[in-house]
Amino acid sequence: SCGPRRVLRHNPTSMRVFSGIQPTGRKHLGNYIGAIRQYVVSQERAVQAGDEAIFCIVDLHATTVAYDPPVLRERLYDTAAVLLAAGLDPDRCILFRQGDVPEHTELSWLLSAVTAHGDLNRMHQFKEKSAQQRELISAGLFFYPVLMAADVLAYRAGEVPVGDDQRQHIELMRDIAERFNARFGEGLLVVPEGRIPEVGARIMDLQEPTRKMSTTVGTDEGRVYVLDEAKVVEKKIKRAVTDSEDPPRIAFDPEGKPGVSNLLEILAVCRGTRVGEAVASLADARGYGDLKAATADAVNAELGPVRERYAELRADEDALEATLAAGADRAREIAAPVLADVRAAMGVGPAVRQRA
Ligand code: AQP
Question: To test ligand 1's pocket by mutation, which of 18, 28, 31 has the most ligand atoms within 8 angstroms of CB?
């Protein structure tokens, strides 16, 4: 045939994993359950499958809203230490800092050629975050999803572990990959799948359980930080908003009983059981106090060891830098040839001569 050459260069069901996390604020229980815990699981699955799990601390994304440069650097180390403390292992995954791998920014520009302005305009996160900005709504905030698409597509990753709030961004990156392949060559980029956990994909604010636990919205009382002391965790969970049903009923009903259901999800995830088992374990509870005590215990059992390892890891910034630098070298080894393919397909730069 004389149609375009259709070569499927890459396994479309790739087990390669990629996810990014921002070095902003202090990481909370939502980030931990929705993302970080999933990273550790994905790392093991990728190792089993003989593929790479790649995790990136996205400092470039963090520059899209008002921020302080020295604080960004501190938070970057905090985030790296939290990830390592939670179980990411540089011998079993690639962990690096986004700004160290220029392929991300280059690819984001190239992908903008196949990204619809109208699609970016529809992004919920842009609408919410632009409403929060006091001085400037940066073009970077609008462009954020294209950089996020580039983060994943630069590695031809097949799987992206994220929380529920990233659903729309994942859909967009899939559209971008499909449009790119249709325009420049089938199989050039892998169309990735989001991997959103069944339980814990949207941990809610403890004080306003109809809103997700968030770094930028809500108060400290509403979020548990990964690094909160055990006593603080207890206090925050004890004060969590539940409901005034009389007599109190411990049941999983996110619409009718958002506060109780949120605690049940947290309890189930931290115990590594199903929500139904968490409910059953409280059959003899006298009230919501028992649910809260059980939840606080489970959270502390999960986060206690992370906090301990964190203190040790965070103290050695040179070691963190060395880990991130080694990760960036490995990341570039994967991303550079992808960028070469993308540039060649798009007609950017000189023609690549076939070697004799
Ligand atoms: N409440 C949540 N429940 C479950 N997962 C969550 N994630 C965020 N909030 C929850 C997931 O955490 C990962 C890393 O997110 P990020 O650091 O990039 O920040 P974010 O998505 O913007 O969420 P934050 O931390 O709460 O910040 P703001 O206040 O800016 O929204 C992602 O996979 C995310 O899904």
Answer: 31
